[in-house]
Amino acid sequence: MSRWIERCCRGIEALIAAALAVMVVLVFGNVVLRYGFNSGITVSEEVSRWLFIWMTFLGAVVALKEHGHLGVDMVVQKLPALGKKVCLAVGHVVMLYIVWLLFQGSVAQARINWDVTAPVTGASMAIVYASGVVFSVLAGLILALDLLRLLTGRIAESDLVMVQESEEAVQLQQILGAKGDAQGARR
């Protein structure tokens, strides 16, 4: 199952890259056409906005899978292994509940907006809310699998803290770890 999730995340990353490329072409093309030729791409703003929404939700799925979201872990790191496991389980149960609420709300909004058309493209506005449905399904799957790994004991103690304190702290640890490895190799 984890291989399938890994492949799915690689596909999502490709979709994000493609969406970003389309956004760049639309926005840049629109700017050039407006200032250079006094015309424009009418669907540019609407499609770019939708692509940005989808990129945000899909990127959050990839970040969740890679445990890349920032968090505060100074209390959890000081707990014994059992305390870390309890905190991780409680955190995952709470996140699963929040993802369930997001799923319900996104489905309700998609149903409400199914017949509402976008002003320029004429496409259904449910497309916007479908991003929340896709995110909540994929995030729920990832969270449930992480929780299952925890409950079956297939998670290492080093993986019990699944957040990063800050990007700077991670970079500092990598630098200090590299220096420590180099000093150990010299001895």
TrEMBL record:
Gene Ontology process terms (BP): C4-dicarboxylate transport
Keywords linked to the UniProt accession: Cell inner membrane, Cell membrane, Membrane, Transmembrane, Transmembrane helix, Transport
Its membrane topology: Multi-pass membrane protein
Membrane-spanning segments: 12-35, 47-65, 86-103, 123-145
Gene Ontology molecular function terms on file: transmembrane transporter activity
Entry annotated with the keyword Nucleotide-binding: no
Domain Tripartite ATP-independent periplasmic transporters DctQ component: 23-152
Cell compartments where the protein resides: Cell inner membrane
Keyword Cytoplasm in annotation: no
A Pfam family hit: DctQ
General function of this protein: Part of the tripartite ATP-independent periplasmic (TRAP) transport system.
Similarity comment: family membership: Belongs to the TRAP transporter small permease family.
PANTHER family: 2,3-DIKETO-L-GULONATE TRAP TRANSPORTER SMALL PERMEASE PROTEIN YIAM
Record's subunit section: The complex comprises the extracytoplasmic solute receptor protein and the two transmembrane proteins.
Name used for this protein in its record: TRAP transporter small permease protein
Source organism per UniProt: Variovorax guangxiensis
